[in-house]
Amino acid sequence: MRRSFMLGSVLFALTACQPSASNNTQMQSLPADSAGFTAATEATRQHQQDVSAVLNLQQQDDWQQARRGQLASADDFSVHLPSGERIWDRAAYQFISGEAPDSVNPSLWRQAGLNNLSGLFEVVPGIYQLRGMDLANMTLIEGEQGWIVIDPLTSAETAKAAFELALQHLPQRPISAVLFTHSHIDHFGGINGLLPQFALSNDIPIIAPDGFMHEATSENIVAGSAMSRRASFMYGKQLPRTTRGHIGSGLGKSPAFGHLGIIEPSHNIDDDTEAMIIDGVTFEFQYTPDSEAPAEMTFYLPEFNAFCGAELVSRTQHNLYTLRGAKVRDALKWSGYIEQARQRFSQAQVYFGSHHWPIWGNDAIQQFLIGQRDTYKFIHDQSVRLMNNGATADEIAQQIRLPESLANQFSNRGYYGTVKHNAKAVYQFYMGWYNGNPAHLDPLPRVEAASRYVALAGGAEALLQHARAAFEQGDYRWAAELLNHLVFAQPSHSEAKRWLARSYDQLGYQAESGPWRDVYLTGAYELRHGAAQTNLDLRQMKSVFLHTPVSHFFTSMATRLKAENAHDTDLSIAIHFSDLQQSYRLWIENSVMHHQPITTAADVDAELTLTHALFIDLLIGNAGIKDLLLSDDIDSDGSHWDLITFFSLFEKPNQHFAIVTPE
Q1: Which of 241, 397, 470, 586 could form a Cys-Cys staple with 475, CB 3.0–4.6 A?
Q2: What is the DSSP secondary structure assignment for residue 627, as one 8-state letter?
């Protein structure tokens, strides 16, 4: 029997699964730009000069390699959604040229300039790369019948536009195969912009590492809201593209979030896969799970003497822990895979990867791989050594330094990951969050602790004076720590927020890491302007959600149960997907929601039947109450009140939660 009057509760539940005078002088000497960012201080200018004095920033090898083989420029590459919203604007980064301004670490400025070299490039005859058109690269390999595509970018729109640019300069051939090197969305999300319209046939091979579908569809479902909010800091989503704002991620420019998609692979690569001929080209695979991604692979092309390192290696130190939040990566295993690749593919004369520019020459490739291998192993081994001598994560981060033999190689610099936060990741991998000090076992909540620190300092104005003095001395980390206490104790204290934002400005300007810069400057931006109230448009994720097991959404739904409202609840419902021939029993017990697949009739309080497509439309907001009132695709049986009660116990996450203020 169809019941329309309870659909509002159903919609609510399903959408919940979405993922002093001297100080005044200092102020006047720091004119702000239109977004409020202040100028670099004398301390920051000195810091930048010190960086320039240590590093050989005039070294030209990387520039020569990054320019080599360019067939077409993408300096004016711009991509829009059908609505007209621009999701990629290469011209926005045109200001990155010449000498580094005082507001950018000169080492990061160099990396941003190299990442600005965009367009279509010939790696060797038969291998081509599209770079600077999204966060990652798309690689094209010439097969017997068509183009073998490696990593089709983040969004359908950028992938389509990039491939069309390639076809203006390369033979007009169809796509004969696609490889996803790993399970991060900037390497598969654009697939719908290429297939089926450019495909040789409807059944071309799709190759990916074993475990790809599970990892690609599950990573952001459970903790997606928190990850998305923090990713907006890590990638500087709200920042202007200026010398005082976002200049790039270090790994590339920025993700292009248009319409995202995924296709289930027809072939999975694992440890038992030695080689495969794909459209006449021999691929020798290396399966590297639990390295940079949970599911990842590299490959060697013997006909080309070419090694694709995917994201196992990059022209930067990578993340053992990513600032957006994710499971910590295994540094020891990662280093071991690099050594394995170095030995297995020791004849390689060219390296290319999922990010950055290639390397030519066997000796140069070997030096690169050894440097990457030893960077991760050094951080691992020395962090563990210090840990076993009683150092905590924070203490390790302050002590550990790469040796000059590694630090002087630009490809090991912390443009994306950093030694400091990667060392903390190693500690977390082995020891977790607790550092062994009883005072840190059950600390006071941050707002209460902040209030007590302010009182201990003699009140808000006394603490503010101490923070201003630290700022004047160029001690921005200490100024930020003091001011953060004041902001959390008194979030309406406008002077505290202004000075904290200024401190974050300087910390961002000094950062060598693109994500660190973006995190600091986004913090400053939100202190001045408030948190952004825009969300990721889930409708652009529809294709990915359609390939995500519905059980993942039920797992996420359980994390949104308002336990305080469910302590006396003992309810069960069944949800049937009429087109999938799948059914699930959901029940609440001890303020916990469980789910399990069922194949026979279950003893439940109520039942709901709908199609998988309708479920996804409810999830992303494509369908609303009015649509459902007229739908033939939803039915309910049993107690209507129990259905309403069940779904009313779930909340929609706060996607704009405060980070730099307590509320």
Answers
A1: 470
A2: H
- Local structure of 484: helix, strand or coil: helix
- Give me the percent of the chain exceeding a pLDDT of 70: 94
Q: What is the pTM of this model?
A: 0.94
DSSP one-letter string for 115-148 = HT--EEEEEETTEEEEESSSSS-EEEEE-SSSEE
Quote the tokens at residue 549.
């097991």
Q: Give the side-chain half-sphere CA count within 13 A for 422.
A: 30
Instruction: Choose among 299, 254, 288: nearest CA to 376.
Output: 288
Under a CB-based contact definition with an 8 Å cutoff, are residues 296 and 181 in contact? yes
Helix (H) or strand (E) holding 398: helix 393-399
DSSP string, 504-571: HHHHHHH-SSHHHHHHHHHHHHHHHH--------GGGGHHHHHTS-HHHHHHHHHTTB-GGG-TT--E
Residue 45 in tokens: 């200018």
Report which of 634, 627, 626 is spatially closest to residue 610, judged by C-alpha positions.
Answer: 634
Nearest to 341 by CA among 361, 304, 311, 317: 311
Cα–Cα distance, 394 to 68 (Å, whole number): 42
> pLDDT value at position 24?
38
- Tokens 């390639």 locate to 166
Task: State pLDDT tens for residues 52-62.
Answer: 999 999 999 99
E-strand spans in 151-296?
Answer: 175-179, 206-209, 267-269, 275-278, 281-287
Contacts of residue 537, Cβ cutoff 8 Å, sequence gap at least 6: none
